[in-house]
Amino acid sequence: MTESHDSHCPYCALQCAMTLTPTDASSGTPPIDIAAPAGARRLPLTVAGRDFPTNRGGLCKKGWTSAELLDVDDRVTSPLVRQPDGSFAPASWETVLDRIADTVRDSRDRFGADSVGVFGGGGLTNEKAYQLGKFARIALGTSRIDYNGRFCMSSAAAAGNRAFGLDRGLPFPVEDLDGASTILMLGSNVAATMPPFIGHLQGARGDRGLIVVDPRRSETAKLTDEGQGVHLAPAPGTDLIVLLGLTHIVITEGLADLDYLAARTTGFDAVRRSANAWWPERVQQVTGVPVAQLREVSRRLADGRGTYILTGRGVEQHVDGTDTATAAINLALVLGLVGKPGSGYGTLTGQGNGQGGREHGQKSDQLPGYRMITDPAARAHVAGVWGVDPSIIPGPGVPAVALLDELGRPGGIRCLFVHGSNVVVSAPDVDAVRAGLRALDLLVVSDFVLSETARLADIVLPVTQWAEEEGTMTSLEGRVIRRRRAIEAPGEARSELWIMRELAERLGAPGTWSTEPAEVFDELARASAGGKADYSGLSHALLDTGIAAHWPFPPGSEGTPRMFGERFAHPDGLARMVAVSPRVREPLGQHGGELTLVTGRLLEHYQSGAQTRRVPELLGARPHVTAQLHPSTAARLGIAEGDAIEVANVRGLVRARAEVTTGIRLDTVFLPFHFAGEQCANLLTERAVDPISSMPEFKRTLVTVTRADAT
Ligand code: SF4
């Protein structure tokens, strides 16, 4: 009899529930009654969707094919060391760990502790994310740690913290959306990124309608064809102005909830003044969204029958992403939606542990429990849990783009550890990142495959992956869930917890370094106690009882599925409304022959594609990058469907195939960011960042497009 294991998908933040059943090696047949196609590979386990509030048994094609990840051709099963000829050769763990520790010691002695850096990931379990922050601060002694969530959730997190005093993506359970009458979704293509989520939009789709803001007619925007749906397609980078325009109409038409504003917020007067400048006709002129649509949407949002406003990366991945998310929050507060039953504001976290990944100390300025590293009380509390003097915890480091800028520079980082991230595909201006990585004295990449970043490493450390390890993740609704081991890892693959313990001991680090996820979780819970993201009442054993564990979850509590019902997390309990103004006032694509590049996602791929490009069914469906162009734009440029084209600017050139579609604006070109090499969209993006969140600009880059044979 083969035992099944309840776990969750290895990909996105919806964290769909799955049942994992190891293939019964002794019987030679799969343990469930599914006839495999002739010649199909025999995978180590089978995956079935499991009933759970977020996915109700559903999975997308990434989830259904996730067992393929456990059997990829280039799985790293032993430590690899780069040879003088550039190839990799296997080596023993003892050899590589000793060499890493020696090189780190030497670098710290010669160049200081901040010559060593750590780049983490939003897909790491809570336990690994926590341990990585601790490892950086007290084993390596460096302030230089940040992670790829800086490319993903940082603007929404900054806006949430500023407005509410706390950042939890959805401050309500996903199922609450089922009862919505109207949902305004800005910059999120859930129909492609997390298809089971669409089930929660049915109420709005059948009632007053789904309202989608996206410059593209995305798969999600197409849902607005039904019923009373509305698709607003503003010029890229003008979402903030659309939000100011909606806020202006709500206020001037007397639709604001003045009682709520007086009782629960501060700053409304300043917000009203800032919105004054954005009357509908002016908004139409800048964004291209018709006045009639703006008025219709404003009235519908205010109809009082259950309205939710949701934002995603489309509006957040900008140099003014924090202010744009703030404008969405301001609109929600003006309408009195936040903290009331049956309405609300939330942001849709993308990465699998995008929520937990930002709570436990991977960020350059934060300690576990979502505490600021500059706060003396926070430092003292965490130091007590770590068993160290607070003075040895370094101060704040630098956020991801600045950290990558320091690679190989004089006085910068000389040794880098990369965990759970593929930066030479996912970071902006990847050619510059690649050059930085090549200039390092030591690049150590922990991964289970030879990702594009791992291929540049001096040492690759083979690690366990989702179905081979125990741990926890925190979903987009702040629910802490259990990841369970269903099979053993192959070869010499080890958990990052084991790697960090081995290196910490070699480096003479203080404190204890458990390799047991349940023990690390208990330590994480103690470190989080009293912090914003408080896990102190939770344990693996309690989670194994199947409770719904939304944080904050202090001891004796039953968790917090819904937040802000009575008060916000600022000391006075009030939400802060912050007046914001656009810095971007015109569509980029109106200059000469240039177009505005927007990057985004496809149904078949996830993040940098390091995983999904190794799954035959997913790669077969989307084998290469395609660039979406409007038919009129394509005709003007002499481009036809399927043509080889070049998308270029001063930073680089991407080779793609043309996908001609009316679903995109005349002034815009869309590239998915899941592809590597000369197909990598981030060859073109720039390192300009939001001054508050340090989020790079991924959605508004000037490019030219030409047919490949025309150059
Ligand atoms: Fe996995 Fe996300 Fe797809 Fe669910 S929606 S199966 S969590 S990738």
From TrEMBL:
One GO molecular-function entry: 4 iron, 4 sulfur cluster binding
Pfam families assigned: Molybdopterin (PF00384), Molydop_binding (PF01568)
Keywords tagged on the record: 4Fe-4S, Iron, Iron-sulfur, Metal-binding
InterPro entries in UniProt: Asp_de-COase-like_dom_sf (IPR009010), MoPterin_dinucl-bd_dom (IPR006657), Mopterin_OxRdtase (IPR006656), Mopterin_OxRdtase_4Fe-4S_dom (IPR006963), Mopterin_OxRdtase_prok_CS (IPR006655), Prok_molybdopt-oxidoreductase (IPR050123)
Start and end residues of each 4Fe-4S Mo/W bis-MGD-type domain: 2-72
One GO cellular component term noted in the UniProt record for this chain: membrane
Gly residues bias spans: 346-356
Keyword 4Fe-4S attached: yes
GO process terms (BP): respiratory electron transport chain
Region (Disordered): 346-366
PANTHER family: NADH-QUINONE OXIDOREDUCTASE SUBUNIT G, RESPIRATORY NITRATE REDUCTASE
Protein name: Molybdopterin oxidoreductase
Organism: Agromyces rhizosphaerae
Native organism taxonomy: Bacteria, Bacillati, Actinomycetota, Actinomycetes, Micrococcales
